[in-house]
């Protein structure tokens, strides 16, 4: 009885780790999708700000003020990298326990 319960808890923990990694990966893909759509003009209206809209509005000014496009693009890239590192770490942590 006790061994059966321990086995169930171990299986639940592994399943939870897998779902958490998939969920984190989905967050990164959603961030890229929303930013891409906003860059193309299919996003929140102009009073609202997001990284895709900021890059889109700054593209005509790339020669005069490149930082206006580079800063939001860099923030998006660093956020995507951070999420990818978290996903990788959680994935490796889940493999180490099992």
TrEMBL record:
TM region(s), chain numbering: 68-87
What superkingdom heads the lineage?
Bacteria
Q: Where in the cell is it found?
A: Cell membrane
Keyword list, A-Z: Membrane, Transmembrane, Transmembrane helix, Transport
**Membrane topology category:** Multi-pass membrane protein
Family matches, as InterPro entries: BP-dependent_transpt_permease
Q: Which PANTHER family match?
A: D,D-DIPEPTIDE TRANSPORT SYSTEM PERMEASE PROTEIN DDPC-RELATED (PTHR43386:SF1), OLIGOPEPTIDE TRANSPORT SYSTEM PERMEASE PROTEIN APPC (PTHR43386)
Q: What's the protein here called? A: Peptide/nickel transport system permease protein
């Amino acid at each position: 009885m006790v061994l059966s319960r321990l086995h169930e808890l171990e299986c639940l923990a592994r399943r939870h780790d897998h779902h958490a990694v998939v969920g984190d990966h989905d967050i990164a893909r959603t961030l890229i999708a929303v930013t891409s759509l906003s860059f193309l003009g299919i996003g929140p209206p102009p009073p609202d700000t997001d990284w895709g809209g900021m890059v889109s509005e700054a593209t005509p000014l790339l020669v005069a003020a490149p930082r206006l496009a580079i800063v939001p693009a860099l923030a998006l890239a660093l956020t995507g990298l951070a999420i990818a590192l978290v996903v990788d770490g959680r994935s490796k942590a889940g493999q180490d326990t099992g």
